[in-house]
Amino acid sequence: MNQETIKLITDYYAAFNSGDMDTFLSLLTDDVIHDINQGERQVGKEAFKQFMQVMNTSYKEELVDMVIMSTPDGSRGAAEFVVLGEYLKADQGLPDAQGQKYRLPAGAFFAIRANKVARITNYYNLEDWIAQVSE
Predict the structure, then answer these.
(1) Rounded distance between C-alpha atoms, residue 65 and residue 93, angstroms
(2) CA 20 – CA 16 distance, rounded (Å)
(3) Is 25 helix (H, G, I), strand (E, B) or coil?
(4) Which pLDDT does position 77 carry in this prediction?
(5) CA angle centred on 74, ends 72 and 77, rounded to 5°
């Protein structure tokens, strides 16, 4: 495993968990590719910033039980974790929000360029999440 990539992904999730969006966004390339779980592909740091503004309005999340891996050359990485969340405000096309709590296994794949995140692809079971917030 490549320690620089492990540190980059660790720092990325530490910034996410602390709500430090300036640091979080600084770890991305300007042309970052964001493949949204069961959704569209967005390109660019500004699009990612707008996505995070919606996320931070609708959800309060902490990522725990983190396992981070990388290729030996550091060009790719992956993370497996559990999302502990609270659904704060209804997101477009999803159930009503009433402060529902959820626990969701998830993962992410990364492409790394110049020690920054150049692509992130997130995966989780959307049907599981919908079932949890619909109970």
Answers:
(1) 29
(2) 6
(3) helix
(4) 98
(5) 100
CA dist., res. 78 & res. 83, Å (int):
15
DSSP string, 44-88: SHHHHHHHHHHHHHHEEEEEEEEEEEE-TTSSEEEEEEEEEEEE-
Beta bridge partners of 70: 77
Q: State residue 68 phi and psi, 5-degree precision.
A: -120, 135
Q: pLDDT tens across 59-117, in order?
A: 999 999 999 999 999 999 999 999 999 999 998 888 999 999 999 999 999 999 999 99
Geometric angle at alpha carbon 103, from 128 and 88, rounded to 5°? 90
Domain boundaries, the chain: 3-134
Place of tokens 């300036």: 22
Fold classification of 3-134 is Nuclear Transport Factor 2; Chain: A, (3.10.450)
Average pLDDT of span 29-37:
95
The pLDDT value given to residue 37: 87
